[in-house]
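look at this stuff:

>
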Amino acid sequence: MLRSQRLDVGQSVGAILAGVKAAAGEPIRDECVRLRDGRALAYTEWGDVHGPPVFFFHGSPLSRLWCPDECATQAAGVHLVPVDRPGFGHSDLQPGRRLADWPLDVAELADTLGLDRFAVAGFSAGGPYAVACAALLGDRAEHTVQQPVASLSGCQ
């Protein structure tokens, strides 16, 4: 049975991304799944595996091994699932891929993990991937958080 929880994680994920730093510890799980088309898709899990799930899309050139803030992730009680996009880390390259292809990979991973609904968060170059999931996955992606690296409004 697919797990479904009411997700009220927008502020929690914002707090996690606000404390951006390199992960110092080890993820709960570091796995690779084989998608229906035969490609490998790598992911890790951080935080509370029983908490509301949040798929996290890293910036470039980061990978699934980067948790923005382990303490904030744990304190927020979320199940953070960073995923290597095609061609990053241990995920296989997908020749000819388009941004609109990514949500299908995320949905397949969510099905594998038994997750019916989830939030998506993108940091830096991962932001457009979070937006694509929000646009194309309908009600499955209940919340979307996009965090740029920095605002340029204060630059001189």
In short: Strands lie at 29-34, 40-47, 53-57, 79-82, 118-123, 141-147. The first strand starts at residue 29 and ends at 34.
